[in-house]
Amino acid sequence: xxxxxxxxxxxxxxxxxxxxxxxxxxxxxxxxxxxxxxxxxxxxxxxxxxxxxxxxxxxxxxxxxxxxxxxxxxxxxxxxxxxxxxxxxxxxxxxxxxxxxxxxxxxxxxxxxxxxxxxxxxxxxxxxxxxxxxxxxxxxxxxxxxxxxxxxxxxxxxxxxxxxxxxxxxxxxxxxxxxxxxxxxxxxxxxxxxxxxxxxxxxxxxxxxxxxxxxxxxxxxxxxxxxxxxxxxxxxxxxxxxxx
Length: 244
Prior knowledge:
The chain is of the alpha+beta class and 244 residues long.
């Protein structure tokens, strides 16, 4: 089996797995239904087309850059009745960066890789207001899904590494559970149909893990620990105590 790695980054992302109506939440990482929907769009598939081949892929996410939550007060006016408006609260992730892995048939993964580089329709990170930053495709890896996510170099932006206080980090990984794995959680983001008249989602089991500690030479803690000057602010107090 091969694994295709994708880089999902942008100013805004939104990956909701349970919200409806006036309040639209986002999960902390991309959902399987959201990513497979984006891939189906890139491949030019219609909403009513069969997606069983995509559903057969093992799916995993590594969080390289935790996003900050943003809530948007959203209004939309009726096209004919100017006094009627629709109010909703929409939640987003700001400045997040994820590595998504897909494991499965090599030929299908090659088709997905080509489609993500040459999409049939515009791509969005969960919602139309969330265009992705390029590049999206990282490439194919000849290893299993979890190993590919664990071994890939950290891709966080330099400003984020400066901001991170820890001298080393362990990146969070969320993967489909295998046959012998003990599931950490059950989530409902397995797409069964994207049809507008009857969208359907199933359950899948996932496991959570972490990468090995990764060194962060740009951490603020390391930068602040380096002496900036020979000045000792307590030297004067020491001399004062000796006089007393």
